[in-house]
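FW: tagging you since you asked about this chain on Friday. Here's the raw sequence from the shared folder, copied in full. Didn't touch anything.
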Amino acid sequence: MKSQKLNSIKNVFICDKENSLKLVNINFDKTILEIIPVLDRSVNWNDISTISKRKRFINNLQLSLNDHVIKGINDDFLILIPGGIDPHVHFDTPGFEFRDDFEHASSATAWGGTTTIIDMPCTSLPPVTSFKNFQMKLRAVKNRSIVDSAFWGGVRGNDFENKSNIHKKIFRLSKAGVAGFKTYFISGMDTFTDLSFDQMLETARFIKDNNMLLAVHAEDKSRIKERMKKYQSDNQNNWKAYCKSRDEIAEEKAIENLIRIASITNCRIHVVHLSSAKGLEQVRKAQKLGLKITAETCPHYLYFTQQDFENEKISAFLKTAPPVKKKIDRSALWKGLSDGSLSFVTTDHAGCNPRKEKSDKNFWNVYGGIPGVEHRVPFLFSEGFLKGKLSLQNTIELLSTNAAEFFKLNQKGKLEVGKDADFALINLWTSEIIRSRNMHSKGKYTPFEGIQFHARVEKTFLRGRPIMDREKNFIAKPGIGKFIRVNHEE
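HL: got it, structure written out here
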């Protein structure tokens, strides 16, 4: 019988706990076979945190270990993390591929050190709201992804208007292996309209019956629509009016309603792209009450504030729903990540053609979305870990481990024997200035234009296969990525 080829990564640092690391060699095929310590002690990050400290560490190691162990030693000594998991992306296949598609977006994902994504149901045509539509989506993306992918299902106002059997749709999609069900309290899409409170309550009951997860875009529709009408009638068409209409109170009120729904149904509810301190207070309140309410946030809410809309070069690029808020909100979100109130960091990746959809002088008409999968991992290392807002362990958990556990992606999210050999090799001793021209998604724009990240993804592996190598300018061909069926059985 032909023996299976053994691959290895040598002399890499993996997180031990908090800010300590282990220097190891890892043998793998599709899964991790062995993790072999090079040293019998852990290494504190502070001992290798600068280029000179790292060089001194390597030189001392060369003196203390034999040549066989340290062969090729100067090529490595980077940080190895489990492949990133981004549970909130819009890759737009099929139906909106003039904005992005699985080939481009998954390529950007691999460049960004992420190996698994969960694609949202609303930016597909048809939207993933039935088993039939799910199968169409599965066929449409077949052999088109470089990374592994799961799908969200969805419930929309259109389904109630059409008197669809929503309970049956949820049941069949649950059995098909969707990660959960996305809904909106306010939506701008004709093909995926929002739910009223009563519809959300009924949906939560159905989802609870199937032991599933309800994910909600949480902004209060009545407050936003009322303020939009006032500002637009007064011909206020700038970013200030947009932000005032979608303020922190709109998010707070929506989450208050979700707390009511969770109290009645005991449904698991997840708040997507949380943007405000007031919203976070409501999430914490729910968690203290023992309700199953969780939340995520995104890099743009952790870096920008509304003052950045004054910068005309990035103002349109920064538009999202909900919009970024103020310094107090940004600080609160970082605190929520460090204390565990927020579960993970996602991108809400949603690109477009910036020349056509990010150029309108009327800010209400500007497309809201940022293509972020390429920047999430280096961003969180640069702005979180290296600036002391997060520990190394916390950073990795927020990028991968927490999402794997949350969505029961049991083969993902940890560097352990038997897990998928999904890796990202991170260089924390170099920096990169973000340039939109270097992006790999279809829409090449970003509000991070010109900002320096002090971290860079050098290589990415999916189930043992290299899918990105920065030095070689290598990116794998689409088709390596697989669909992952999420199993919610307990």
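FW: Residues 7-77 form one domain.
HL: agreed, and The chain has two domains: 7-77, 86-406.
FW: great, closing this out.
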